[in-house]
Amino acid sequence: AHILDTLPPLVSDSLLAIIALVNADPNPDKIDVGVGVYRDGQGRTPIPASLKKAEKRLWEEQQTKAYLGGYGDVRFTAAIRPVALGRHADDARIGGVQTPGGCGALALAFKLIAAARPEARVLIGTPTWPNHQPIVAGSGLRIVEYPFYDRDGTRIRFEEMVAALKSGERGDVALLHGCCHNPTGADLDDEQWSEVAQIVAERGLLPVVDLAYQGLGRGFEEDAAGLHKVLDSSEEAIVAYSCDKNFGVYRDRVGALFVKTGVEAATKHAMTHVLQIAREQWSMPPDHGAAAARIVLEDPLLKAEWLEEVAAMRDRINSIRARIAAADPRLAFVAEQYGMFSMLPLSKDQVVRLRDKSIYMADSGRFNVVGMSNGQVDRFIAAVIEAMD
Ligand code: PMP
């Protein structure tokens, strides 16, 4: 036998299986609401015009691609900082580093926590983005799951969330979705965020806020409001930020990690560990996407154009949500949720039967609200209602 033959089989990612089904379907009007990228009314995943202009400028002006160092593009991190952190942007107790996307930021965050406190448990509400558990498990930290969302009742199980957070011990970690919860679309309201922020601080939990869709829910400030409350009340906190959706740079892997501690010196020390871990993992983050995003953020005209482009994405998401919600009272919940995903209360059988009509979503009923083109919305709604009846 060969050495690598001993690798155990893995259960394949069901979303990859759906992508294969979509690709194999010859129907030109097939509806792919499985995949997790933004699509416009014509079904394309465009590169924002502001970013395209910045890339052109980058190509013209960049003189070298020599190594940048583990921090990546420090001007990028400085420029995204006020967008993400708002009134906390000037807090010297918050350190930042560029990362390969939100995944890189999360991986760094949990490895950092594991280096400080290997016995920490990570409290995760389910369902969650299916890469959360593997990333946390990869750090060696223990996962404690609690039920976050009642899919068939289409509501957040807030009492259970509160109870789970209250059961946390000092030094445990609370992983929180900043906005546009993936896969449920169910975001905490202001009051719930206040309560969560308070419990996390009182219990001495370390909050890790995953902010991967800022601007795509209610607006930039609104989408970070929960994070800002957490930063108000917790002396220590970590933010895993992704620019991949709001800049449309998915494959370029653009993100940042922000680490807050109680005093500036402790933050400086923590950042030396962050850099050491980054060095082991990827040495330094990929430059291109972050450099282009930095050009956008530093140029007032490009930035204004970008904010408008994100607003257009957000408006498309929310207008399709409104159309779906208006079609049937059982779908009304879709308009109260945010971001690209919601979960339909369909059985796996019903989801599979939709595939006979060339409509593809995850077995869980999670669908990408903007996976369909404008011309496909009515057919999607009719098929979903028929499946529910
Ligand atoms: N967190 C959540 C909740 C996500 O949905 C995603 C992307 N699907 C990420 C983090 C990671 O994003 P990135 O592609 O930037 O690594």
From TrEMBL:
SUPFAM superfamilies noted in UniProt: PLP-dependent transferases
Domain Aminotransferase class I/classII large per the UniProt entry, residue ranges: 29-383
Pfam family, one: Aminotran_1_2
InterPro entries for this protein: Aminotransferase_I/II_large, Asp_trans, PyrdxlP-dep_Trfase, PyrdxlP-dep_Trfase_major, PyrdxlP-dep_Trfase_small
One GO BP annotation of this record: L-phenylalanine biosynthetic process from chorismate via phenylpyruvate
Keywords per UniProt: Aminotransferase, Pyridoxal phosphate, Transferase
Cofactor(s) needed for function: pyridoxal 5'-phosphate
Gene3D superfamilies xrefs: Aspartate Aminotransferase, domain 1, Type I PLP-dependent aspartate aminotransferase-like (Major domain)
A molecular function GO annotation: pyridoxal phosphate binding
Gene Ontology terms: cellular component: cytosol
Entry similarity comment: Belongs to the class-I pyridoxal-phosphate-dependent aminotransferase family.
PANTHER family (UniProt xref): ASPARTATE AMINOTRANSFERASE (PTHR11879), ASPARTATE AMINOTRANSFERASE, MITOCHONDRIAL (PTHR11879:SF22)
Subunit structure, interactors included: Homodimer.
Protein name: Aspartate/tyrosine/aromatic aminotransferase
Source taxonomy: Bacteria, Pseudomonadati, Pseudomonadota, Alphaproteobacteria, Sphingomonadales
